[in-house]
Each structure stands twice: as C-alpha cells, then as structure tokens.
Description:
The structure holds two protein chains of two kinds. Chain A is mainly α. Chain A has a single domain, classed as Orthogonal Bundle (ABC transporter involved in vitamin B12 uptake, BtuC). Chain A is 72% helix and 4% strand. In chain A, strands 1-4 form a two-stranded antiparallel ribbon. A two-stranded antiparallel ribbon of chain A has the order 2-3. The mean pLDDT of chain B is 86.
Amino acid sequence: MALLGQYAMNGAMLGMMYALVAVGFTLFFGVLDIIQFSHGDVVAAGAFAGLLAYAALTALGVQAPGVLLLAVTLAAALATAIVGVLVARFLVLPIKGAPQLNVLLVTLMMGTVVRECIRLFFPNGSQPQRFPALLPSSGWNIGAFYLRFDNVILLACGALLIAATHLLITRTRLGLAIRAVAQDEETARTMGIDFKRVVLVTFAIGSVLAAFAGVMDGLYYNEVFFGMGLLLGVIGFAAAILGGLGNLYGAIVGGFLFAALQTVGAVALPFASAYKDVFAFGVVIVLMAIRPTGLIGERASERV
Amino acid sequence: MKAAAVAAAATVFAWLLLRAESQTSITLLILLAVAAAVIAARLRFRVSGPSVLAFAAAVVLALLLREDDFSLLLITRILIVVVACLGLNVQFGYAGVVNFAGASFFGVGGYTAAVLAPRLPHVLVLLFGGAAAALVGSILILPVLRTRGHYAALVTIAFALLFRTFLEVNDTLGGPQGLKLPELVIGPFHFNDSVFDWSFYLRYVALGLVLVALALAVVQRLERSWIGVSLDAVRLDEIAAASFGLSIARWKIAAFTIGNFITGVAGALSAFMIGFIAPNNYAFSESLILVSILLLGGIGNPWGLALASAIVIVLPEKLQTIQEYRFLLFAAMVILILLFRPAGLLPRPLRRLKT
C-alpha cells in the first residue's frame, strides 16, 4: 500500500512535468506548425538559471526559503522566456518558409548550443549539480504511506499553472489571437492581429511553463544535470504527439499517460530501474509505430 | 589540368597543416585556407576531374606522412567518417529520410565487430557489422515509414538515446567500460605490424581508402541510376512521386537500409582501429556531429562531405583551444549555415546524365 502510494506520487510528479513540457510543444506547433526541438534544453536552462539565482542570493546572505524559492522560480522563468523568444525571433521566424528539415535542424542544434553552454560555462557543469531543497520536507502519515508536503505543493502549482494557461488561451483576447493564428495565419493577419508578436508571446508562455518543469524536476529529485533536457524534451514531445499536436488537453493527457506507462512499466517489468530510460524511449518508438499521429489524431487529409 | 593543380595544392596544404606544431602557424594556415576559399567562391571557381585524382592525393599525403602516427590516425578517422556520412547521405540527401541516430548505427557496427572478431575472419566481420546495422535499422523502419518529418526525427532521436543508455546498463556488452577488440587481420596482413619501418597506420589508411572508394562507387552509381532519380522524386514530393507510381515505402526502406549498412561497416572498421569501444563513443552528440558534417558539406554532394569531414575532425585536434568547445562550435556553425547558406559549402550539382 505504501509502495503503491509512492509509485502513484512518483507517476503524478512525472506526469505533471511531462505535461508542462508537452503543453509548450503543442503551443509552438499551434502557432507556427513547427517543432521547437530545443524545448527540452530550455527546461534545463531554466533549472540552471534557478540554481544560479540561488547561489547568488545565498552568497548575499539571504536565508529565507520562501524568498529563495521565489527568486529561483522567477530567474528560471525569465531565463527560459528570453531563450524562447530569442529562438523564435532569430532562428524560427526567419526560416519559416524553408523546408521542415531545416527548421528541425536549426532548433535541434540550438538545443545543443544551450546544452553545451550549460556544460561548459556553468561552474563544474559537466557534473550533476545538487539542487537545494527549498520546500518543507515534512508531511502526513497516511497509513504506512508518507505524503510529503513538498510533493503536494509542486503538484498543486503545476495544476494551477496548466489551468492558468488554459484560461489564458480560452478566455482572454491574447488567447483568442493565439487561437486565430493557430487556425489560419493569413486570415489572422488580415484581421489585424500582429502575427510576430503573437508568436513571440506564445514562445515566451511555452518556455515559462518549461521553466517550471525544470524547477520542479530539480526540487523533486534534488539534482539537475546538463543533459536532463534531452529526456524531458523527447518524452514531452512524444506526449504532445500522443495527445495530438496542437491540442492543449491532448498534451496534458499525453503527459500523464506517458508517466503512467513508465511507472507501471517500472513496477511490472522484472528488469526494473536500470532499464527505466531504455523502456521510456522504447515506448516512444513503439507508440510512434502504432499511432503515428497520436491518440486523438490530427486532420488526416492535407492540401496538395 | 586545373583539377590536378587543385589536388596538388590541397595535398601540400594538408601536409603543412598536419605537420604544423605551433598554434600560431596552424592558425595562419587555417586563415590562409579560409581566404583562398573566399576568393575561389568570389571568382566562381569550379573544378571537376576524375575521382582518381583525389585518391592519388590522399595516397601521396599518406606516404609523405609515413612516419607520423598521429597524422595518419587523423587521416584514417576522416576516411571512416566519410564512409559513415556517405551512408547518411543516401538517407538524408537522396531519399530524404531523416536519421539522427547515425552514431548509433555506427555503434551497432562497432559492437558487432567486437563480438564477432574473435570468431570469424575479419573481412566477414566488417560486412556483418554493416549487416547488423541494417538489421537493427529495420526495427525502426515501421515507425519511420509511418511518420514524417518531425515525427520521424523524434523516432530516430529516441532510438539514439535508447541505444546509448542500453549499452551503459547492459552488462553482457561490457557496460560503461565497453569491449576490447583483437588486432585486425585480413588475409596475410596484420594491421598492427609496421610496413617497412613506417607507421602501421598506413595499412588502415589503405583499407580506409578502399572502403571510401567502394562506398563512393555505390553511392555515385546509385545517384546516377534510375534508383537515384526515384529517390530524389520521393524526397522532393511524396505525393507527386506516389501518383507517378513510385512506391514510397519501398524506396525509403531501400535508402534507410543501404545507408545503415554503409554506416555500420564504417563503425566496424573504426572499432578495429581504436581497438576498444565504449558507449561514450556513440552518444547522441556524435550523431549530431555526423549530421553537421552532412549539412556543412552540402547535402547530397560526396566531395562536400569529404571536405566537411576533414574540417570537423582536423580542426579540433590541431587547434587545442577549441577541442573542448567543439560540439558547441559545430552546432553554432550549422545554425549559421542553415540561416545564411542552406546549401552548404559545396552544394550538390545538378544531375548530369551524359558524361
């Protein structure tokens, strides 16, 4: 029972992280019909920016965990928003009309640039870095299962963020503009929507979500690694596809589904934890083979 | 005549660069080459000549450097990477099948060689390395065929990450420590014995040249034939190609398998030469380096990728300051190339049906 609760908690945390990353992928695909392959590494950039803010503040003598946590989150969000907007403005928008392969390669290589920058320029960056535990580690005992406060807080924050994104997309004028651009760029332009601004804002929103995923990853595992974005990126993207690219709910469902598969796989399969990542990537490949356009699916026909 | 002069100049330059010791002279030589390239581009300088010239230049270069182990090792590494990239070229350049797991298929070749080397004649081992890569690739065929563009890229990236993680946690294949290989023996030739009093790497250079020649012959004939035309059609417009009766699936499978085979053979030779393989040699970043070479040289042009392989391998080895930063530099270089010169350094020429 305690073990089951532990697995469920672990799965929920993973699912929330995947969902946050997947929502970013799906937003970018919506407005530009492109995949931002560096999105995973933007997650890592967020986590490391948070770490930098933490180091800077502790060096200044700030001790209060609340202040530190706020600073870490803000720094992460700011850093990822900047990276996301720069990628959109200088890499993706200029080659929007180029072959898909070029866009894919540019963003993929940008991911490498971000990853390598962390490895080379963060102090001792090639080693995994300890991420400070800023949330209270106490909790409740429910039977034999120990429910930690920090996990609950992280899950609640993640859910709030996704709900906020949902409200932003469905209830505000900005969201209306984003949806209009996603539906038909040209018509949106003729209706007076500033296409470029909408794209940049969308990239900022998506990247900020990635920052939270990064900070969440750091707080949950107490460790961040320069290559962590690769796994999160690939799985986040797979989750977005699974839910149907361009579909916000699909991305969330996809993220949790993926986490569930991974958790169940880790429990059910005998070779267990060592092959955890192998299993996850294997699932990505198999799912792509079975349902190449996702569970919910996109429009099947296309204009020739 | 012009081609011979260029080949001679390139040989002399390569010799100077590989012999150069001080960082200043290396930097000067590289600047000189860049200047020459810029001037050549301005003058719209074009050469064409028989491929034999390039091979002759490589042989002369190897003989000039006959006692210099390190330079010969670099030359062999270039030759092996050229073979691997020729394989990727069939996939990316002709059929338009994306494959971001180049280093993984290279690794499949290497690990196959390590496992089979004690048991089989080594010529067969090289071939089996390629066959194993093609076979492993066939696992990916279904997802790659059923998906397009971004999705296919995701599948190969997932495979590249899976492969590396698998090797690290798997104990039978040596885990993170990797495997050792015995000396390469083909017929009467023992590859770790020196030739006369010269470096034993000369044999590897020779074998590398043979492999490059074979791969080049296959790839160039493929391109010139009706197969190449079909592959181009599939890459340029799947719907149009299908409506002209071409089987998209068949040509994609053919290109993917041929490409992986060639890459796998290169991987097997590389494993023999280094004598030792580990998961770290086959990381995702190495796959990205292979793709960078392809883009830098100009997708679809074998000579472009030979030039790009030389640049990508020799630069970090000779300029020690950039060694640590090479992944960063090459990634940035590819971004700049894609933004400003998407066709690469030596773009693929139009198909000439008469010679």
